[in-house]
Amino acid sequence: MFIMNMVEGNAQTRDNLQKVRKEIQQLEADLRAKENEEGSLIEQVEDMDREIGLRQTLLDELEVERKEKERKIQETSILLQKAKEGYLKQKAVVAQRMVSLYKRGRSADWEALFSVSSLSQAAVWLKYQKRIVENDQRNLQQLLEKAAEIQSTQRQLDKELEEKEEVIREKRVETEKLGKKKSSREKLLVLVQKDKKSIQEQLQRKRMAFREIEGRINQEEQKRQALAEKTDGSRFAAQKGKLIWPVKGKIVSKYGRNMHPVLKTWTENLGIDIEAAEGADIRSVNMGKIVWVGWLRGMRNMVLVDHGGGYYTVYGHLDEVFVNTGETVGDAQIIGRIGDRRSLDGSTLHFQIWNGMTHFDPETWLR
Q1: Do 177 and 302 share a domain, yes or no?
Q2: CA 310/CA 312 separation, integer angstroms
């Protein structure tokens, strides 16, 4: 069972790595296609944020693979040591037998044969000698098999060590690329933060993201009604005022109307924005099903959780996402990770609560 689980874990890690690599390659291809276009500063920073998040995910997956390789190497090393010990024991048995044959010589066998007094005794003696020969052959065969086992295990160990070094090399390269991307992003952010036009564009993108979220929830509601789904939402409703915080931090933008500190204009917030520590874990506030994972301009990585009975929670501004559409999550399960303070939105989580097409103030639901 352990070996089966380990193989499944390795396959999952490889699948995750391949998926992230493909996303990065696609994003890089899209960015190359835009090189000759005059994209806005906001769009450039958002694309960088997205690539940084993907590269960080890749680094995390590579670290998981490195640890798995180390465990496999340790297990193979133990198998190799056992094979060598078995080989030495078997070698000692064969060597002892060879010494015995050398001391006695083959003439002693003939003398023993001629010393028997009857044909029946001779038959027993010959049968005994045959068994000795067969045993010698078995010992020799086992010795050869253990030698072959050592060679095979050593080749396996050498391969695993090489694969581990390849993972370490790739991780080193990705770490360097990540550092360069963060440096480039910081330079652009300085320009964005001083440019009112960019700030206005950022707000407009958030409004568009809100409409996209509303549209997604509407789609889920239509599916639920078409299937005449009778899932009970009372469990979630009973948690009003008792839900855990999706991330530990402080609210920096409340639900409803907010005055923008730079533009001095009113903006509408469909949820709350919680400022937290860089890289903080984001948790599902209640058990439910992941019905959408995506990336939106103005909101970055998004996760939509269906809690049954028409209740939904929305998590935005994620730097990394650890769940996939269709998964079931439990209370307080980690679903992602927040970004760093040098990203476009800083280390903040955007959080919403809906029932049907009605959104609520999340503060009144959190304990």
Answers
A1: no
A2: 7
